[in-house]
Amino acid sequence: MPELPEVEGVVNSLKPVATGKTIESVKLSAVLEVSRQAGKQAIVKGSELKHFKQALENAQITQIVRRSKYIYFHLLKDQQDLLLVNHLGMTGAWFYVQETADITEDKFRKHIHVVLTLDDGMLLVYADIRRFGEMRLLDSEDQFPPLLLMAPEPFAESALNHFIDMSSLSKYQNKSIKETIMDGQVISGCGNIYATEALFRMQIHPGRKVKRISQKRLILLFQTIVDVLNESISAGGSSISDYRNINGEAGAMQNRLSMYGKKQCPNCLIPTKQVVLGGRNSWYCPSCQR
């Protein structure tokens, strides 16, 4: 699943090509229509498909920003502000192309679900192989309360104190540290990959309960998470499987990972182990991480 650095990469590549452009038309895949007929909502959530299309057409993209793992498209239509919120899910990707045939990887071309035709003649294409991503068209964040529960951005001045305060709550004190730092209400944007890396750098076992970690180590852990996120942003994110930027390019952070997906500890060279925490596989070194 794309985490904060990967979403940051997508946003940074979207900004120069889409900001200020007007959406002339919207095309949705037949798969989304079939999903609605079956009583489900694939990708487009909370709006009728017809309304979603009509609301986006002739709207200007005024700003594109990242919030945690979400992409916020700020729109202006008929002097009214709209907010298109996109989560990439497991396999979502945006492409900026002249035609869909320009998307080089077949696995994405086969799973195109939203095509926005811009007033420069280019297409802004959203493809999603597993369809776990989502789009919500809102007037503001208030219309989707889970957005208001997200922790501050990890680079914000308030983020460390927020992390310490949340970690001290009883519901987190008895949770594993891995589950806690992957909780978006505790730290924004830190998922399985970067939680694994930060815990390895700090030599903390992912299953250790929060209450068994001193505040001093929690502070150092938070700072390590921020360092890992920044390092990944600089490297263009991690392309473990399906992450691509809008030009179809992969990131390079996967080549710098020390523990995620590794069979051997790079420090002591013994085999790594895995434990499932919060439904996710967690790699760790049984010797280095305690």
Folded structure, characterized:
The structure is a single chain. With 290 residues, this protein is of the alpha+beta class. The chain folds into two domains: 4-149, N-terminal domain of MutM-like DNA repair proteins; 159-284, Helicase, Ruva Protein, domain 3, CATH 1.10.8. Helix content is 29%, strand content 23%. It has nine helices and eleven strands. The protein has helices at residues 4-18, 30-37, 49-56, 106-109, 159-167, 170-173, 177-181, 192-202, 215-234; strands spanning 23-28, 43-45, 60-67, 70-77, 80-87, 92-97, 112-118, 123-128, 134-138, 273-277, 280-284. The strands form three sheets. A five-stranded mixed β-sheet has the order 2-9-5-4-3, covered by helices on one side. A hairpin with a 2-residue loop joins β10 (273-277) and β11. The longest helix has 20 residues, at 215-234. The radius of gyration is 20 Å and the shape is globular. The chain starts with a helix and ends in a 6-residue tail after the last strand. The model has no long low-confidence stretch (mean pLDDT 94).
The CATH architecture of the largest domain is Alpha-Beta Barrel
Tally of helical runs = 9
Described by the principal axes of the CA atoms, the overall outline is globular
Looking at the structure, the CATH topology of the largest domain is N-terminal domain of MutM-like DNA repair proteins
Total count of domains = 2
| Alpha-beta content class | alpha+beta
Return the string of H and E elements: HEHEHEEEEHEEEHHHHHEE
CATH superfamily of the largest domain: MutM-like, N-terminal
Instruction: List the uncertain runs.
Output: none
The average pLDDT score comes to 94
Strand content: 15-25%
Helix content class: 25-40%
CATH domain class name of the largest domain? Alpha Beta
> How many strand elements?
11
Distance between the termini: 27 Å
- Strands across the major sheet, in which order? 2-9-5-4-3
| Largest beta-sheet characterization | 5 strands, mixed
